[in-house]
Amino acid sequence: MQLMKAEPLPPDRARRMRLTATGLLVLMAAVFAYTHQFLGLHPAWGYANAFAEAAMVGGLADWFAVTALFRHPLGIPIPHTAIIPSNKDRIADTMAQFLRSNFLVPTVVARRMRGMNIAKAIGDFMVEPPKVDLDDPENPSRITSGAAELLAEVLESLDPDRLGNQVRAGLARQFEKIDVSPLLGRMLESAIADGRHMPLMDGFIRWAGLTLEDNEEMVREMIESRANAVLRWTGLDERVSGSVLDGLYRLLAEVLVDPEHPLRSKIEEGLQKLSQDLQHDPKTRSRIEEMKRDLLENPAVAEWWLGVWERIRRSMIRRAREPEGALGEEMRKGLVEIGHALQQDEGLQNQINRFARRTAVGITTRYGGQIVQLVSETVKRWDAVTITGRIENAVGRDLQFIRINGTLVGGLVGVTLHAIVSMA
Q1: CA dihedral 117, 121, 122, 124 (to 10 degrees)
Q2: Closest C-alpha among 165, 146, 170, 152 to residue 314
Q3: What is the per-residue burial (b if ≥16 Cβ within 10 Å, else e) of 24-48?
């Protein structure tokens, strides 16, 4: 297994305490050496010498114990020293198993998340995000602006033709599931019942009149070309064509101005029959479905959709990159609206919290073993210096207190033993 360097170690927080503990040990050694030459002058020197001697022994013992955890004391490979570097892999497996047994347990995760209202917390953040510096990359405005920029980059990176065809295929599949004939029939029936078809009928009549006016010469030629030789010889063909056109104009005008015109009634009867056929006539419904399939399979429709999609895509990219951040502002407004819903709708909160809880439990159940394996393998790949430095930096300050306490406690034990011996 190839060892790897982890991130740079944080500053050594135990350095001052290490120097203090070492300085205290050196001080005890100096006191022991100094007081040893005055032992016969006064009993007090004996107590001081005993305190310094025992403190020095206790300090050295604790120094050896603390140092043996992380390295060989004085570089000498004494058995059962450098415990952490030597047992790095076993420590990694133990850490992973501890995590698996005490944290990544479905019941523990479910119990912990049952008391959390994740949905409301998300809603609170969306409605009233924490006050942060405008230059902070975690600022909500920067988050939404970054999301808009990410959307623009994604739309640019994807193949527009392929994406457009995928969207079109998805819409086509959904459209194929819809039975459009009854839908059109009900829409037409409702429009007739509410009188909403009248403006459409008036517009159609006006359009017919304007079309007839624009193509009047062509209509005249068609009528005259179908007249027999006698009418053309007598010159009556022009009068016939003029009379036909005048009659058509008069008919369209009468239908337009008279809401009760019989022709309108005939048209409404035809529309009502069409609405019923669209809903109930199998042949009509079959023809409409066939027309729908032909329309979906028509290459011209596919080409038209690609053009529409390309305009939509470019418009979204442009809006996402506007200096004023219009799309980002819309996204912020949308997030605020969602946040209000999450704050106030308890039913929505329960659904989201239940989903989050089930998701977390599912992830724990399915991937818990892989997570702890990742932890174990990551620690195993660290080199011994890295893992030793991390653990020593985490607990080194407390370990240096152990050295100081060992020095002082050893001194007190030495004084006590010296007093007992002196009294005896």
Answers
A1: 140
A2: 152
A3: bbeebbebbeebeeeeeeeeebbbb
Task: Provide the token pair at 95.
Answer: 């850490």
Q: How far apart are CA 126 and CA 143, in angstroms?
A: 12
The answer for residues whose C-beta is within 8 angstroms of residue 227's C-beta and 6 or more apart is: 236, 237, 240, 241
Fill in the amino acid letter for 303: E
Residue with tokens 């944080």: 10
Q: pLDDT tens across 164-207, in order?
A: 777 777 777 777 777 888 888 888 788 778 777 777 777 877 88
Q: How far apart are CA 374 and CA 96, in angstroms?
A: 9
Burial class (CB in 10 A: 0-12, 13-18, 19+), 380: middle
DSSP assignment of 291-360 equals: HHHHHHH-HHHHHHHHHHHHHHHHHHHHHHT-TT-HHHHHHHHHHHHHHHHHHH-HHHHHHHHHHHHHHH
Confidence of residue 233 (pLDDT cuts 50, 70, 90): very low
Domain boundaries of the chain, sorted by first residue = 15-86+382-423, 140-174+310-344, 180-296
CA distance 134 to 148: 18
